[in-house]
Amino acid sequence: MISEANNRKRNYNLKPADFNTKKRPTWCVGCGNYGIWNSIKKAFVELKLSPHEILIVFGIGCSGNGNNFIKTYAYHALHGMALPVATGAHLANHLLKVIAMTGDGDGVGIGGNHFIHTCRRNLDITHIMHDNRIYGLTTGQTSPTSNTKFKTKSTPFGVMEQPINPVALALICGATFVARGYSGEPEHLKNIFIKALAHKGFSFIDVLQPCVTFNKIDTYDYYKKLIYKLEDSSEYNSGDFSKALQKSQEMERIPLGIFYQIKKRTYHDGLEQIKDKPLVYQDLSSINIESLMKSFY
């Protein structure tokens, strides 16, 4: 366990490459995960964060392989369980910058219930969702964000359901920072990450990223024709919930940027037990665990 003193040591001269491990990424050539990988490392550098100040909880899927490629504290959770693990880690030590890194199936499919409640609790963690609209690691099945009529191995006659809209869902469930990025716009994505990580409260970023091997519909060319940036409009206000919800429903074009951001009390602010000091640094030596356990007999 890191001491409280060591947790405050910071290296202000880090470069993105300093967040690389000795393992090289095994993603397919051209995979959108590379753009996310590079953008998050650059965000860490600009925020002057050191590896020991960051915990990334990874879900299952191609995005989860990032567990091996980013030099921070890391935990590879069970499928759909990244957010509850991130919640526990944050409440144990809220001095850590805690990030949940999931895929779309992991984030709003198998982990959909956890997503809803993490949003409404306003925990001070960041959820980055790699949204390639397909299950890539298991070689191409439909995911919760796959478009209607999309044909995959699991839906050879086309998807029947309407896709989940992660941005709209995060807004409705109470997230205090909701954004959408695109791996093909790495500089723009980096800036979103910086703002999300600096936000006090639950920040969610739906990152569109092409799966070059199994999704031949949502390609780089497809997104290039449709994306635009919210901040390019002088009329847009990220503090307007109704406008954010309206923008999240756009179908003809795909808006990128920060849809919504407000200030609100975080979950851990309401816990007296960790008000003065993180749980992980509290002295528990005086607690008689044996007598406590006997009280449950």
Structural commentary:
- This protein is an alpha/beta fold and 297 residues long.
- The chain is built from ten helices and eight strands.
- Strands 2-1-3-4-6-5-8-7 form an eight-stranded mixed β-sheet, with helices on both faces.
- The protein starts with a helix and ends with a helix.
- It is globular, with a radius of gyration of 20 Å.
- The longest helix is centred in the first third of the chain and has 14 residues, at 33-46.
- Residues 1-5 have low confidence and may be disordered.
- It has one domain: Rossmann fold (3-Layer(aba) Sandwich).
Helices and strands, with pairings:
Layout: H1 4-7, H2 33-46, E1 54-58, E2 73-76, H3 82-92, E3 97-103, H4 104-110, H5 112-121, E4 126-131, H6 166-172, E5 177-182, H7 186-198, E6 203-208, H8 220-226, E7 227-229, H9 241-248, E8 254-261, H10 289-294
Parallel strand pairs: 1-2, 1-3, 3-4, 4-6, 5-6, 7-8
Antiparallel strand pairs: 5-8
Q: Characteristics of this structure?
A:
297 residues, alpha/beta, Rossmann fold, 8-stranded mixed beta sheet, 15% strand, globular, disordered N terminus
Count of DSSP-assigned helices = 10
Number of strands: 8
Strand order of the largest sheet: 2-1-3-4-6-5-8-7
What number is the mean pLDDT? 93
* CATH homologous superfamily descriptor: Thiamin diphosphate (ThDP)-binding fold, Pyr/PP domains
CATH first level? Alpha Beta
Radius of gyration: 20 Å
